[in-house]
From TrEMBL:
<dbReference type="InterPro" id="IPR031101">
    <property type="entry name" value="Ctr9"/>
</dbReference>
<feature type="compositionally biased region" description="Acidic residues">
    <location>
        <begin position="1002"/>
        <end position="1018"/>
    </location>
</feature>
<keyword id="KW-0175">Coiled coil</keyword>
<dbReference type="Pfam" id="PF13181">
    <property type="entry name" value="TPR_8"/>
</dbReference>
<keyword id="KW-0677">Repeat</keyword>
<dbReference type="GO" id="GO:0006368">
    <property type="term" value="P:transcription elongation by RNA polymerase II"/>
</dbReference>
<dbReference type="GO" id="GO:0016593">
    <property type="term" value="C:Cdc73/Paf1 complex"/>
</dbReference>
<feature type="repeat" description="TPR">
    <location>
        <begin position="464"/>
        <end position="497"/>
    </location>
</feature>
<feature type="repeat" description="TPR">
    <location>
        <begin position="349"/>
        <end position="382"/>
    </location>
</feature>
<feature type="repeat" description="TPR">
    <location>
        <begin position="743"/>
        <end position="776"/>
    </location>
</feature>
<dbReference type="GO" id="GO:0000993">
    <property type="term" value="F:RNA polymerase II complex binding"/>
</dbReference>
<dbReference type="GO" id="GO:0006355">
    <property type="term" value="P:regulation of DNA-templated transcription"/>
</dbReference>
<feature type="compositionally biased region" description="Basic residues">
    <location>
        <begin position="980"/>
        <end position="998"/>
    </location>
</feature>
<feature type="compositionally biased region" description="Acidic residues">
    <location>
        <begin position="1047"/>
        <end position="1062"/>
    </location>
</feature>
<feature type="region of interest" description="Disordered">
    <location>
        <begin position="965"/>
        <end position="1062"/>
    </location>
</feature>
<dbReference type="Pfam" id="PF13432">
    <property type="entry name" value="TPR_16"/>
</dbReference>
<keyword id="KW-0802">TPR repeat</keyword>
């Protein structure tokens, strides 16, 4: 059996039934009153029944509450007034009834019944009741808390959230489990700080304390979870609350709005969206019938009718809401009462926003601005109104005001997608470079926010216009890679919604790829654009069909496609150009490309091409494109068609004076001519300087007309460099490098850096040009690298650098496809001569035999090369006259080769001497080492002998140490025996005894002397002094004995001399 889902789940089915009836004691009986069916329109009978029985307060309150639940307010007021007039109720009971009336007024405010009047009555009632409670010490705490709660709720209606929170805190100090006070605190937190996490905990605490609390805390729990982005649990909370109270209209509204949200954000198909949207509207219609004046319901309906374009119905709905909130039907200027709540102010703000949107759609941007401003006054957090105001300001031409409005939005809502997008678009329309940089910053932030929007929801689709604007901004900055990247994202974004990008996007992608020399990709994109043109129709903003536009676009796209074919298939390109010329005879661009291809392919003679150009020029003398091409033709082929040397100058001056004084190509051509004239002027420095200054003026004029003309900038840089202002030229070339993707920039940078003797950087630029723009076998660039390495080697006196120069010069010869390689061969020979000369000037200690031999081989090869070049029959391509080459070869074969051979011999001799010295030094060192070893061995031998001798001495001492104790013992025994004999002979004559005594002493001395070293014995026995001294009564001092036996010897001597002392 399933658990019940209504209130009986918490209090049981029996208690549910008991709540429907009231048992009132009557004359020892019980009268049961059905609180749902038996409450009469006239409560007089119930009043009489309760009055006669003097029924306690609780019966009156229960019946009054039942009247309140069924909406019979008049009967309720009559019933409570009767209770207040009864004498048997005390002051506390009357306070309870008065508090009940205040709660009734607050309920009417909540239900929207005469809000203003009900709020005033509630304020008056609370004020009177507060005065009574403060002046009556016997007031029950329950009544005091009830009045405080009324005051807290009233403060919530008045948007005094801080005061309401203070009252709730005051009550919670008295009773920390007061569920209603917790609800007030949670609601005040939601209204003021939007602290959803803390408010959620409070609502959950109320739910634990009282699961059947009215109002239901589950409603607040759902709101907190919704704003914490956990929509699933929010909906579950509201659904559970609705199960417990199916009549709660607010819950039904919340669930309906949640379903609308799900429909708009998670519908996977149009069919699913329509089904869900219809279901939402049906539910909304049911809610509207049960709650006609609910502003949330009416605003939702207004949104629906606005989407349908039924603006009249929207205005009627808005007027109804405004009248209900303000009491006025003036929707042009809202009459704001000071007593309206924050909620009502927000509702009115939305009303003003909808009216502003209506006027915006009607293109009345002035009136829409007024409505949006009114909405912002009512609710400063109304983002939609602020966005609408910014859009209105822009559409009425107030661009600066619109920018300020969107900037204010971002200051407080930096993650607002619409504000970021709108502000980025507006910034991009400004002329300021700083504003354009801000446009890039803001639009890229908009894209990041769109792709990262939400955790579980799908990504917000990015407006393709944002990609297009960013591409244009990066193009203006000269960053073609980023420009191309954003155009590619347009194609990807369109594919995500199963749509294709416009053909203009494919054309632009093709152009960028062409500029990056990705010709295959460019051709593919141009072909895609041409294919998309088939069957396409174009209309003007007014809806008119543009008949000629498809053909015009086809001509342009076909021309672009042919330009890419020039690289891979010139014949196909010619075919396309000829086809275009037939379709559009006046399309001179195609005709000029045909002439250009003929010039470089030799399919026609140069005279025939000149005749065709002259014909074009006669028909269209003012066409600057034709004149520019003619100038290029004269510059390259003037001699072949027998034109005067100054033909190019004449043409460009004619263009500037008679057709367009601001033609950039003519100005650049003329500037180049002056630069060449200055370069060719020899000796006359003033004249040369004048030509350079004139060239600089012309290049500067082009840059003033077209600040992004990198060709003019590069020409200016070259002119500065040739005019001995290399640093200025270098600065310009470095700036151009970031804008112009052309090999000439890197080559010019290499040239100027070589002039400035910054060879390392020059080599880097040459190598970049070689790697990035060629296949690595460009003879010209390899020659430049050889020259740079040669100059570096000479400057830094480094043979390795000269060898590197020779290597590049040889590679240039191998890579050259020219019919004559005389100049390149001369370069190789020249470096070989320089290497030979460099080695001859080297110090002998720095030379290497292998390097000299290589140099000799190279020099001989160089001499052979010069001899061959000097005997070449076709001497037109020789870098120098044949006689000079012969002289140089002769010099090499005599002087230089001899010097190199002599250097080789000197080096060999030097090396031999060095090796001989090294060998002698080695021998000397070896002899010294052997002598040292002998000395060491001798020292070791002496040490070993000493150690052996000391070992022998130690052995002797050890033996003596073992013998001496035995002798000492014998001496003591002899002395003891002598004393004993003396005592026995004590009666003898003194003189004789004295003589005997001396004999004993002498014997004793003789025995002791035997214990002394050999030296003592020798000394005593040698001269006999000891015996003589004893005979004369003297005593010789004894030498010290070994420390191991000193003490024993002294004791023995003491014993021996005891008789003398006596």
């Amino acid at each position: 059996m399933e658990d019940p889902v209504d209130i009986s789940y918490y209090i049981g089915a029996e208690d549910i039934e008991s709540l429907k009836t009231l048992d009132v004691p009557f004359d020892n009986q019980v009268v049961s009153i059905d609180l749902q069916e038996e409450l009469l329109d006239d409560p007089s009978d119930l009043i009489q029944l309760l009055t006669e029985q003097s029924s306690p307060k609780k019966y009156w309150i229960i019946i009054a509450s039942a009247y309140a639940k069924i909406g019979k307010v008049e009967q309720l007021m009559k019933f409570i007034k009767a209770a207040l007039g009864l004498a048997y109720f005390d002051n506390n009971d009357r306070i309870t009834f008065e508090s009940f009336v205040i709660w009734l007024h607050l309920q009417n405010v909540n239900l929207g019944i005469d809000k203003e009047h009900s709020l005033n009555l509630a304020r008056q009632g609370i004020s009177k009741l507060t005065f009574k409670i403060q002046n009556d010490r016997d007031t029950r705490p329950l009544n005091s808390i009830s009045n405080l709660l009324c005051s807290a709720v009233l403060n919530l209606y008045d948007s005094n959230n801080d005061h309401a929170n203070d009252i709730a805190e005051q009550i919670l100090k008295i009773n920390s489990t007061n569920a209603f006070a917790l609800l007030v605190k949670a609601q005040s937190l939601l209204n003021k700080s939007k602290n959803y996490a803390v408010a959620l905990k409070l609502f959950q605490q109320v739910l634990i304390l009282n699961p059947m609390m009215k109002p239901d805390p589950r409603l607040g729990i759902g709101l907190c979870f919704w704003f914490l982005k956990d929509e699933k649990i929010a909906i579950q909370s509201w659904e559970r609350s609705l199960e417990l109270d199916p009549t709660n209209v607010k819950l039904r509204i919340f669930l309906n709005l949640a379903k609308f949200h799900h429909t708009f954000t998670n519908s996977l198909s149009d069919e699913e969206f329509l089904d869900n949207y219809k279901s939402c509207l049906q539910e909304l219609s049911k809610i509207q019938k049960s709650s006609i004046n609910d502003s949330t319901v009416m605003l939702t309906l207004a949104a629906h009718y606005f989407a349908k374009g039924d603006y009249d119905t929207v205005q009627k709905i808005i007027q109804k809401i405004v009248t209900s909130a303000t009491g006025s039907d003036n929707i042009i200027k809202f009459s704001i009462s000071s007593s309206i709540s924050t909620y009502e102010s927000n509702v009115l703000s939305q009303c003003a926003t909808w009216l502003g949107r209506i006027e915006f759609n009607k293109s009345d941007f002035t009136q829409s601005s007024k409505y949006f401003q009114e909405a912002i006054k009512l609710n400063d957090n109304d983002i939609v109104a602020k966005l609408g105001l910014g859009q209105s300001q822009y559409n009425r031409g107030s661009l600066e005001e619109a920018i300020i409005t969107f900037e204010k939005i971002l200051n407080s809502n930096v993650n607002c997608l619409e504000a970021n997008y709108s502000l980025g678009v507006l910034y991009s329309k400004q002329d300021s470079i700083k504003k354009k940089e801000l446009a890039i910053l803001v639009l890229e932030r908009y894209i990041r926010l769109s792709t990262n929007r939400g955790l579980s929801s799908t990504k917000e689709p990015v407006a393709t216009n944002a990609y297009l604007i960013l591409s244009g901004l990066y193009e203006n900055k000269g960053d073609m890679n980023q420009a191309l990247n954003y155009l590619s994202k347009v194609v990807e974004a369109r594919k995500h919604v199963d749509q294709d990008a416009p053909l203009e996007v494919y054309n632009n992608i093709g152009v960028f790829n062409f500029m990056k020399q990705n010709y295959t990709s460019a051709s593919e994109n141009f072909q895609l654009a041409v294919d998309k043109l088939q069957g396409a129709e174009f209309k003007s903003p007014d809806g008119d069909l543009l008949i000629d536009l498809p053909q015009d676009l086809k001509t342009t796209l076909t021309f672009n496609l042919a330009r890419t074919k020039e690289i891979s298939d010139q014949d196909e390109a010619l075919t396309i150009y000829e086809s275009l010329s037939q379709e559009c005879p006046n399309y001179f661009s195609a005709k000029l490309r045909i002439l250009f291809l003929n010039c470089i392919s030799d399919k026609k003679t140069k005279q025939e091409i000149k005749d065709e150009i002259d014909e074009l020029l006669q028909l269209n003398a003012s066409d600057l494109e034709i004149r520019s091409f003619y100038g290029w033709f004269i510059k390259n082929f003037a001699k072949k068609v027998h034109l005067l040397p100054d033909a190019d100058t004449t043409l460009q001056k004619e263009t500037l004076t008679e057709y367009d004084s601001h033609d950039c190509y003519a100005l650049i051509s003329l500037a180049n001519i002056y630069c060449i004239m200055a370069r060719d002027t020899k000796g006359a420095e003033e004249k040369k300087k004048k030509y350079y200054l004139r060239s600089i003026e012309l290049f500067t004029k082009v840059i003033s007309l077209d600040p992004k003309n990198v060709y003019a900038a590069q020409g200016l840089a070259i002119t500065f460099i040739e005019n001995k202002q290399a640093n200025k030229g270098l600065d310009i070339l470095r700036k151009i490098r970031d804008s112009l993707n052309d090999i000439s920039v890197y080559l010019n940078l290499g040239h100027v850096l070589c002039e400035l003797k910054n060879f390392g950087k020059a080599i880097e630029n040459y190598e970049l040009a070689l790697a990035r723009y060629t296949d690595g076998n460009d003879a010209k660039i390899l020659s430049f690298l050889g020259r740079a390495w040669y100059l570096r080697g000479i400057s830094e006196l480094n043979l390795l650098y000269l060898k590197q120069a020779l290597e590049y010069a040889e590679k240039a010869v191998e890579a050259s496809k020219a019919t004559s390689k005389a100049a390149l061969l001369y370069n190789v020979s020249f470096i070989q001569f320089q290497i030979a000369d460099f080695i001859t000037k080297q110090d002998v200690s720095q030379r290497n035999i292998e390097e000299i031999e290589e140099a000799i081989t190279g020099l001989k090869a160089g001499i052979d090369t010069l001899n061959k070049l000097s005997t070449d029959e076709d001497d037109r391509h020789l870098p120098y006259p044949a006689n000079y080459l012969k002289t140089r070869a002769s010099l090499g074969s005599t002087t230089l080769l001899d010097s190199l051979s002599k250097a080789l011999e000197e080096t060999k001799e030097s090396i031999a001497e060095i090796e001989d010295k090294i060998e002698k030094a080695k021998q000397l060192r070896q002899a010294e080492e052997e002598e040292r070893m002998r000395e060491e061995e001798e020292k070791m031998r002496i040490i070993r002998e000493k150690e052996q001798e000391m070992a022998k001495q130690r052995l002797i001492l050890q033996e003596q140490a073992q013998i001496w104790p035995k002798k000492a013992d014998q001496t003591r025994l002899s002395a003891s025996a002598a004393r004993n004999n003396k005592k026995k002979k004590g009666g003898a004559k003194g003189k004789r005894g004295k003589g005997k005594k001396k004999n004993i002493i002498e014997d004793s001395d003789e025995e002791d002397d035997k214990n002394i070293t050999d030296e003592s014995d020798a000394e005593t026995n040698g001269n006999g002094k000891r015996k003589a001294e004893e005979q004369t009564g003297g005593r010789k001092k004894k030498k010290p004995l070994s420390s191991e036996f000193i003490n024993d010897s002294e004791e023995d001597l003491d014993e021996l001399f005891e008789g003398d002392e006596e």
